[in-house]
Structures are given as structure tokens and as C-alpha cells.
Amino acid sequence: MTEPLPKWVMQRYAKLWKAFKSKEFEHEQAVKVLKEKDENMVSVILSQLRRNGWLTIKLHPSDTRKRVYKLKRLKEVLEKM
After folding, report:
1. 60: CB partners within 8 A, 6+ apart
2. In CATH, what number is assigned to the domain containing residue 29?
3. Domain for residue 19, yes or no?
4. How buried is 64 (Cβ within 10 angstroms: 0-12 exposed, 13-18 middle, 19+ buried)?
5. What is the sign of the dihedral through the CA atoms of 35, 71, 47 and 51?
6. Is 16 exposed, middle or buried (0-12, 13-18, 19+ CB in 10 A)?
7. pLDDT tens, 14-38?
8. Total structural domains in the chain?
9. Rounded to two decimals, what is the model's pTM?
10. Distance between CA 10 and CA 55 in Å, rounded?
11. What distance in Å separates the CA atoms of residue 43 and residue 68, rounded to the nearest whole number?
């Protein structure tokens, strides 16, 4: 189930989508794109996207301490709302 995002999270989703589209990316890459002052804020944003069904997360293939993220397409998200 997907849910609508708060405006501030939707703005960050748009920035991430512009940079990665539906490609996989890591936390460090998201930090560079979002340019948040606090790196923990990027974790909050990614968590919010995951909870609302706009992002998928899987374990990094070579380092299980890390995660790999992938944004869902807007069309896919809207169909599930």
C-alpha cells in the first residue's frame, strides 16, 4: 500500500528521481544529491519514502551493513494508491 507523501518529502523524492530515475543508489549517493546539512536527515527521508511505499530497499551485495535503494516510478505508486 502506498500513501501520499508530505510536501517536504515529495520535494526530496523529485530531486532523487531526477538524479537516479529507477536506478539503484546508495546512502552516500543520496547525501550528495540532496545536499542536506545533517546526514541523518537523509536517513529520515529514505525511511519516510520506504514507509509510504515509494522506495524499495535491499542489502548491498558485497557489504551487508549497507543498503541499496531504488525509487518506484510515480505511475506505479499512483496506481497503488
Report:
1. 26, 66, 67, 68
2. 1.10.10.10
3. yes
4. exposed
5. positive
6. buried
7. 999 999 999 999 999 999 999 988 8
8. 1
9. 0.89
10. 12
11. 13
